[in-house]
Write a structure and sequence with these properties.
16 helices, mainly alpha, single chain, 310 residues, Serine Threonine Protein Phosphatase 5, Tetratricopeptide repeat
Length: 310
């Protein structure tokens, strides 16, 4: 009995909301809404009119959102791949619908099967991460390849990574380098950094530290933090390229300016040990403090050690 009453109540509320939304929409398109508002304000007062305005605006917004969702669902059911992709994103993010990763994956699959490159790449992400579907690197590689063949840079980089680590495909450094180069040629900064690593190690390409260095500098100059940190390490260690503390310090400063904690900590070490700059415990402490404030554990330990030696 209680279930029937609850159901009746829900249906009743839904009906009232539907009628309210329709009346709001009708009054708006016919231009009668302002007239009604002024009439209410005249009969009552400004507060009542303002309340009515808010009530009507909220109702109208709700109506249009529901209408948009209904229209999107209808187009998706009719096979519109763009609508299927957008509906999948709604289920993924829980926008206007209850969040459901399985439904997101299902609608993304439908859009991908119709050849939408964005959907192919996103569906591959789902398989790669096990989001809404069982994790399956082979399926991820299949969909990344489809998107990569259509020129999607991220898919090319991710496919290269799968070949490099042998996930879902047979490990193949040459194919990893081929796809990574294609992504790098499109300006993908992470692909440029990964391609540089391949040149440093000689995996899938002829070993060429100078080409690796050129690629890292290209990415670092475009504010890629990973490239800036790698340059700092390489110049600081001097194993792959000639050691140059001044260059290392320069790249750490640039990464630190972007808020990177590893760079902040490295600057503290450089100033503490006097690498290319005069040793300065106060300056080192300031860098350690900034890194520690942002959660770097080693910087916190270094700062505590400095304070104990005061």
């Amino acid at each position: 009995m209680g279930r029937n009453n609850n159901r009746f109540s829900r249906e009743r509320v839904a009906g009232i909301v539907a009628v309210f939304c329709f009346l709001t929409f009708f009054l708006t398109i016919t231009g009668l809404l302002p007239t009604l508002m002024f009439a209410v304000m005249a009969l009552f007062d400004t507060v009542a009119g303002a309340f009515l305005l808010v009530f009507l605006v909220v109702g109208l917004n709700f109506y249009f959102r529901m209408f948009a969702l209904s229209n999107l669902s209808r187009r998706a059911m009719l096979g519109d791949e763009a609508a299927q992709y957008r509906l999948a994103l709604r289920y993924q993010e829980g926008r206007g619908v209850r969040k459901s990763l399985p439904l997101a994956a299902e609608w993304m699959r439908r859009a991908a099967e119709r050849g939408l490159v964005e959907a192919e790449s996103r569906l591959a992400d789902y398989y790669y991460e096990g989001s809404g579907v069982t994790q399956d690197y082979a399926a991820a590689a299949q969909w990344y390849r489809k998107a990569a063949e259509q020129g999607e840079a991220f898919a090319r980089r991710r496919l290269a990574s799968l070949y490099y680590y042998g996930r879902g495909v047979e490990q193949d450094y040459a194919k990893a380098a081929e796809w990574m180069r294609k992504a790098a040629d499109q300006g993908d900064p992470e692909a440029v950094v990964s391609l540089a690593e391949l040149y440093f190690d000689g995996n899938g390409v002829e070993k060429d530290p100078l080409e690796g260095l050129r690629l890292l500098i290209y990415a670092a100059d475009r504010d890629n933090i990973a490239a800036q940190l790698q340059l700092g390490r390489l110049y600081g260690e001097g194993n792959v390229i000639p050691q140059n503390y001044a260059e290392a310090l320069n790249w750490y400063h640039r990464a630190a300016a972007l808020g990177n904690t590893e760079a902040l900590y490295a600057l503290g070490v450089y100033y503490l040990e006097g690498r290319s700059v005069p040793s300065d415990r106060l300056v080192a402490g300031a860098w350690f403090a900034e890194a520690a404030r942002k959660g770097h554990p080693e910087a916190r330990n270094a700062l505590n050690e400095l304070n104990r030696k005061k």
